[in-house]
Amino acid sequence: MFLGIQPGFAQWSAQNHAERFEQLGTMLRSPNVYRTASGAPGHMYWQQKADHEISVELNDDNQSIKGWQKVTYYNNSPDPLKYLWIQLDQNERAKDSNTPKTAESSINPRMNLRQLENILWHDLDLGYKIHSVKDMTGKDIPVTINHTMMRVDLPQPLLPGQKTEFTVDWSFNIHDRMSFIGGRPGYEYFPNDGNYLYTMAEWFPRMAVYSDFEGWQNKQFAGRGEFALTFGDYKVKITVPADHMVGATGVLQNPQEVLSPTELQRWETAKKTYDKPVIIRTQAEAEKLEKAKSKDKKTWVFHAENVRDFAWTSSRKFIWDAMAVKQGGKDVMAMSYYAKEANPLWEQYSTRVVAHTIKSYAAKTFDYPYPTAISVEATNGMEYPMICFNYGRPDADGTYSDAIKYGMISVIIHEVGHNFFPMIVNSDERQWTWMDEGLNTFMQYMAEQEWDRNYPSRRGPAHKIVPYMRSEKNTLEPIMTNSENIIQFGPNAYAKPATALVILRETIMGRELFDYAFKEYAQRWMFKHPTPEDFFRTMEDASAVDLDWFWRGWFFGTEPVDIALETVNWYKMDNRTPAEKKADEKKAFEREEDYISKTFNQKDVPQTVVETDPATRDFYNSYNPFTLTPEDEKAYNDFMARLSPKEKELLNSGLNFYELKFKNLGGLVMPLIIQLNYVDGTSEVERIPAEIWRYDEWEVSKVFAKKKEVKSVLLDPYRETADIDESNNHWPQQYVPSRFEMFKGAGGVRGAASGDNPMKRAKSKK
Ligand SMILES: [Zn+2]
Questions:
Q1: Strands across the sheet containing 656-664
Q2: Interval between CA 481 and ligand 1 midpoint (Å)
Q3: How far does residue 516's CA lie from ligand 1's centre (Å)?
Q4: Where does the record place the Peptidase M1 membrane alanine aminopeptidase domain (predicted)?
């Protein structure tokens, strides 16, 4: 009977049962006493700690610095350590660096200067000079330098629970970050006034991370895969020209020694001002200093607690503004440092965006725990604890386009946002770019939309990842790819994971379950070192949503979403009486007869006369298939008598049954989001979880019973799934115009003028 069909039964016979819904199992690291199967830190979780005392002096005459540091390293691991590894990031820019050697290069018909410079590299004296590494008695400790990593061979193994202290004396020439060598730290020279603006990051020898999941993370720094860093406390003394303004990670310990009385007074006002930034050093004051160029020196002292890194900036060109933001019962100082070249944009937006970002991110994770959050204008974007370097400079006449303005706001949100991921939720960037960039880009998207509901966000909405998902298969890699090996870096490590999280939140889990689980992940791992497993597991553990298929498809796979609505069949239940049925059948038969007689000219067809046996003639004449027989009536009455009231009601409901068939053309399984548009002008959206694909990953059908009559059907009406071909999402079929890009022909300006990495150009030509 009609209620007896098992949904999905037919699919048991389907082929192609691959593994899209299998649990990740061995694809994830095993849980252990350090990291639980729930995704939380285990009962024996440990992490190392490294405290630093640093004295550094900036030489503004020859753009170099020299520093001395004392490192106190705590071995909280259960393992004795024979040696320690220290990161020497500056060596990535040295003459003998492997970075230019491992960059592919080729000759194009037209080459620009930057492409040639990348081939020629440089002859500058860059990279660290390590003058000494000593123990606390002043005795040299043997070290081995392997490019960007230095091994410190301890006199005896550092046992579990022990700490060791040593000092490092070093110096290096600061490079011009506006040159082809690039990078985030370095200096910018302003020829109009003859001054320098220094952004000092990756500037001191930093401890590598020793962890339960990686041992020493000593993969070389090649410029792209960022950092794995150990938490610790910092006391840093920075000596610079007396007229410089310095911004840094941590809290300034000696404001009365380095600020003027007027600046001190304004600083005190800023601490009590919550509604707008207070300018502490004005543009007019900075312009005066630009001309005078003091030869005196001043030492700024900063302390920072529980940070994984320390960065600073220094220039006499700096304007400085600040305002207070309430966070978890405490005040955070949101601040900006920028040269006059960044105005009027920066005094208007930067610090306000910093304050907005802290509030937006904190609401979804945890209260911002640090005392300051600083945005520095440095023509790029790079993050460090409490301080980041950002982009957004108007034209020389002070005018700016929307692209500059929104670009600036986006970069500030993004880089300030990095305080949460990875500065506090301290993932290993050298291995997994997506763990900080992907999560942060997702958070950035939400903060942008909260800043302005019509904010032109570049990344986040599902449909924005479509061009990437549609790109050539040999340029696609899983999100779970090492930072250094990613071909399409921005789409793979920023946009795709951010989009995946938007889809998880909006389409798969729903906001309530997602937000709780995401916050749980952030809180479990704040001030700790999470791995991808900890993220994947926590999101399931806190939501009761099986997401293995989602991680498998979106993070471990490269397939795109392309689901096609193949057919729609319309059925009605047969509730006619036998008499009505016979009448309908007769009508249909007569229609057919009529059709045949009109179609063929009977006169032209030779008639065959068959003589029928008289014994059977009567039977033929008396049999009429449209006559109701007593047997028909009895069968119907018996059937009706067996029906329960509920079954009778259903039989007479007049429901329309729509059988929709879907094909998975792209490979990536996703929920079916189906908009049924009715004849009466109304519509309705049905949401079918992705698990409908679990018996047959290529083809499924689904029946909807509706009182109303359906006029048309649209798959994924809100463009939530990143479907790469929307032309097969309509019933009846609709023709959707597609766009194509025009390129200049071979030898045209496209390659030569863009000024970016020649390596990438070479790749894209293959
Ligand atoms: Zn980033």
A1: 563-572, 656-664, 699-706
A2: 17
A3: 24
A4: 399-554
**Which pLDDT score, from 0 to 100, does residue 582 have?**
87
CA of 67 to the centre of ligand 1 (A): 28
Query: Which one-letter amino acid corresponds to residue 115?
Result: Q
Distance 403 CA to ligand 1 centre (A): 19
Question: Which two tokens mark 530?
Answer: 């999470």
Domain match, 648 and 585 both:
yes
pLDDT value at residue 7: 40
Are 680 and 647 contained in the same domain? Answer: no
d(CA 381, ligand 1 centre) in Å: 8
For residue 681, being part of any structural domain is answered with: yes
Distance 263 CA to ligand 1 centre (A): 33
Residue 612 lies in a domain: yes
DSSP state of 11: G
Q: Is the residue at 337 inside a domain?
A: no
Interval between CA 428 and ligand 1 midpoint (Å)? 13
- Total number of domains in the chain: 2
**Around Cβ 348, how many Cβ atoms within 10 Å?**
12
Q: Are residues 688 and 719 in the same domain?
A: yes
Closest CA to 422 of 227, 233, 578: 227
Quick one: 673 and 633 in the same domain?
A: no
The answer on 641 and 672 residing in a single domain is: no
Q: Are 370 and 419 in contact (CB under 8 A)?
A: yes
Looking at 584, 617, 652, the residue that finishes a domain is 652
Q: Are residues 628 and 588 in the same domain?
A: yes
The alpha carbon of 102 and the centre of ligand 1 are apart by a number of angstroms equal to: 24
Q: What pLDDT digit, counting tens, does each position of 226-241 carry?
A: 999 999 999 999 999 9
> Strand, helix or coil at 12?
helix
From the CA of 246, how far away is ligand 1's center (Å)? 23
**CB-based contact 439:364 (threshold 8 Å):** no
Q: From ligand 1's centre to the CA of 15, what distance in Å? A: 43
Gap between the Cα atoms of 325 and 333, Å rounded: 6
Q: What is the distance in A from the centroid of ligand 1 to the CA of 217?
A: 20
- Alpha carbon of 226 to ligand 1 centroid (Å): 10
- In tens, the pLDDT along 116-160 reads 888 888 989 999 999 999 999 999 999 999 999 999 999 999 999
Distance (Å) from CA 149 to ligand 1 centroid: 24
Residue 168, CB-side half-sphere exposure with 13 Å CA sphere: 24
Least-confidence region, from 78-82, 465-469, 607-611: 607-611
Q: Which residue has the tokens 């020299």?
A: 66
Q: Distance from the CA of 383 to the center of ligand 1, in angstroms?
A: 7
Within-domain flag for 402: no
* Residue/partner pairs of 172-177 with CB below 8 Å, 24 or more apart: 172/64, 172/65, 172/90, 172/126, 172/127, 172/128, 172/129, 173/62, 173/63, 173/64, 173/124, 173/125, 173/126, 174/63, 174/64, 174/65, 174/198, 174/200, 175/93, 175/124, 175/126, 177/380
What does the pLDDT read at residue 1? 38
Same domain, 663 and 675: yes
CA of 524 to the centre of ligand 1 (A): 22
Does the global pTM surpass 0.85?
A: yes
> How far is the centre of ligand 1, averaged over its atoms, from the C-alpha of 21 (Å)?
32
Structural domain of 666: 563-568+653-731
The amino acid occupying position 9 is F
| Residue 464 · residue 502 · CB < 8 Å | no
Q: 614 alpha carbon to ligand 1 midpoint, in Å?
A: 95
Please give the backbone phi and psi of residue 64, each rounded to the nearest 5 degrees, phi first.
Answer: -140, 165
CA of 64 to the centre of ligand 1 (A): 27
Place of tokens 């320690």: 84
Among residues 591, 623, 652, which one ends one of the domains?
Answer: 652
The one-character DSSP state at 146 is E
CA of 527 to the centre of ligand 1 (A): 18
Under DSSP, the state recorded for 690 is G
CA of 411 to the centre of ligand 1 (A): 9
